[in-house]
């Protein structure tokens, strides 16, 4: 996935400009930076979620050779291939099973047996199977925060996407749940392309292969530095990065 | 494709509703405007209402409405506050209160009328009067008003209650300064419901505020409400239809005006409480 | 969170609490008085049924001829239910669709106008609806299946009357569903239809239910409009085109002339209506509470 | 007499008439207040008995059980059979009317009209017009097979005008007014008697009801004065304007 | 402040038992432990907020020589002396000024000038004065999360309490705001007695003088270890503490 000269704005306010970076297949890319610098906005352009707000988007995002910002792109299909996890777990107010079944049905999987097999598989993937297999028909809202977030990840995985976008997936969780989710993310490495936004620098260091640092200059977010995670944290090229990485409290 | 169809279906339904609404309102408007003139608002009815205006009827309506609101508003707010803020410890009791209110919200208005007649007019000796009518309406709108305000108060963020407690604020202060302003959308909705129901009520008023279409001089006089007038004109007075439509037009406009007024007063009052020290 | 403290320390608080408790007790007393009044007024009828040992006779069909001492209320009870149910069956889908349109499809300007129209409609007095139904709907039906004044006419007029309630409360319910759910749906590549039908509606379900309940109570209690278009013949509703009489219309039609047992029987039908509303709200209270406790969703 | 209050309750048919009479009375007797309330004939009787009202308005003759009250006739109201304007039938016999109302005759064809099902419109139980109708045709209400049951007069007119095959009975004065103002209804004659206000006044039309003011004992003071006024010629124009017939 | 044999329960479930610890004047005491072990419940007993839930509290809390759990204690006065800050900022939906004025008025400060002086002082204390002095009459809800939390702290400080209880005051904030709030807490050291609950171990280490570690054994929260912060982190006496301090991810 190659992002070129991306610019995002709301109304006549530009919030992100001149962002160019490459997201490598099978790797985990972490994005860090202070609040309001446009990380969530950036993530939303990657699966065209920006279509549903009053955002303006300019630039190019090449995915599988074609620009996914073009109008003609089938956004429904695109979102099947690029899943997204939000900061606050947002399971639908349905049963656990329905939460996973709904996207499958929506994408044309008619056979109930096939669906059940897929559901079982992803629940095992996210380590929920043992915890919930006996109450698949209970409300998803009755789960704990960490379980809910893992269910949301499962819900994204059940469509077998190629890319997974995660917007601070652990920040609403307590440390134990957060640890579980983090381990899960690590297990996804290699099988999925993951882009993760996090405020937790230690977490970024622990999980990511690549890292990007956003910063706001003159009220517009910019990508200051992008590179291997190790380099960014241990040998930042830019003074701002160095200051943030060493100074910011997480 | 299916998605597009679904959108069309929804819009189609909305269009259907709009056209039906326009049909009803259009009827009222066209037939009403034909008979309406400004003097209609300022003259006494003549010939059983077939000609002349509705001045005393408007005045009576406003009297009844003010009495109903002045009684029901503080009472209802008080009960709502008590239910949501004070009665919580007595779970059983407040549950019973809530169910009772729900029942009473569903009692047919004609029953309220009969009760008002027996209790206010006869037992309390208020006779056929604007006061009896207003009090009867107050009782009628009370349950709905209490329930909307109460659920509004309940929906107020608990963190504010906790915040106020942690600051050592008295509950009365927290209720007055924080919870009531925060619940104002619900209070406004309750008000609108109440005004709508009270202004359009017929059955409950025939037996309480009565039928006299003279200009009332005091709340102890009998007076005819607009909705009673409309009912009488259309059901009892030969050739009263056009006057009935004109009165209906006035009623609809009155309700809209009152709602807007009530909402803006409420907003204003709360805004002053919220921002000015 | 409950405020109730082990001891209410502050004097103002204490006074306020007492005052409000007295106020509430007063209101409760008055409202209880209404129910007692209903029972007292219907007592002659109820007790005479009791003594004649035919407690449930009024539920069995024996015709409604009060002058001939025959008080068969069952047809009217059934008609009340049929009219209410019918109005809901018509108004619920259309009202929901309007709410969906309002919330997800209409642009803000159109939505504002639509909303205004709906509130306007809610302010039209029921006599006017009755008049409109009698002069517009009844002749239309009469062209096709005389007499026109019928169950169907009542259902149509009533459904129009409860539509604004359903549409406005459902729109509010949908609006209060958190945007996060919608985003979740979008991010999973769901179509708009699926997002709305399978996510937003279930999420807003309990609040929509509240609005529907309100509408049901209104439909059940509506008098004047139904009186004018339903035909008011006391009979079991056998078809949509049959004229029927509902309980409220019966009270309004006969109360001003009724005496003695007849009058008491009308109060008894008022009691019956109230009992029905009570059953309704009690049932819904149970349903929503159970739903909440079990956290059980479809 | 100056000052004083009078309360009248009862029949909604008489109420608009008395309201106008009261207005004239008030203007001639400054300081007098007359409050007119509706609710129905039996309410009038009830309230007078309980002393809640000074005078009751009753739109029928008093029954045997009501002989404790005394009635004062102020006007008559003829009752006429009406059909939709487009109905070619002009006259019905008493038997035909009984046949129609008891459901034995179900189509206008059977009484010389066009092929159109008959919609029978009846009044609600307890209404004085219904009682009069039943008495006039010696029917019991349970024998009647109606398709529509109505309450007040105007509802009858509106229903008949809305339904092509309808038949109903209403106050003649009202029907005349509506007929003249383009409402699609028409009065038809019964056994050859033509229903007009004039015929009622002259006693050439039998089917009519009394509009009475009732009091508990013999009226005194203001009540007496008012009843005398309502029976006098001074209000004749009002009675006619309200489409009733002065006695 | 001396807590002795404190036990807290809801209904017939005990959630915290046998807690005894001393809170030293002018020091910052940090409480750590996994989710659900009763930290919030503990904090709430210290200012009798538990009165307003269906909590049962047993034991003794000596404050200024008297047991503040006794029924006769004037809780309003108590809460004036012991302020509390919650996890999620909860400014009242009023103007900034009103937020601070309301508690002052409530506690009988009639003179407007005095109130304004106090308000200015605390706003400067929490570093908000420059940011908001020009819009004191704007709604407090329009502030950013970090500003809101600082406003809440100011609201507690304006009553000049002796003790400040903080329940995860930074966990809903982004790192920069969180850093600012943390600095603020450090500046309070010495002037106020602070008890802070946090999931962020690094933060606890940075700010606290004393630390306590809660853990759940058999579904009941217990205080496992309490002592100087340094000791607890660097030389924990208890195996559970050691495991948590080294293993838990923050
Ligand atoms: N729908 C919107 N309409 C208008 N402005 C928006 C919208 N969404 C975001 N913004 C603005 O865009 C800027 C960037 O927001 P964004 O949410 O992308 O930041 P972020 O880096 O994700 O911040 P955080 O770390 O707090 O999540 C902010 O100034 C925000 O106010
Ligand atoms: N009002 C209440 N009613 C019943 N149980 C409660 C109540 N408040 C808390 N509990 C229970 O008490 C236990 C301790 O809760 P508490 O909030 O004190 O934990 P905590 O350590 O603050 O957790 P966290 O780190 O998640 O904030 C939990 O099991 C919780 O479910
Ligand atoms: Mg973000
Ligand atoms: Mg906690």
TrEMBL record, chain C:
Its main location: membrane. It is found in: Cell inner membrane; Cell membrane. It comes from the Bacteria. GO terms for biological process: phosphate ion transport. GO terms for molecular function: phosphate transmembrane transporter activity. One of its GO terms (cellular component) is plasma membrane. Keywords: Cell inner membrane, Cell membrane, Membrane, Phosphate transport, Transmembrane, Transmembrane helix, Transport. It is a multi-pass membrane protein. Belongs to the binding-protein-dependent transport system permease family. CysTW subfamily. Part of the binding-protein-dependent transport system for phosphate; probably responsible for the translocation of the substrate across the membrane. This is Phosphate transport system permease protein.
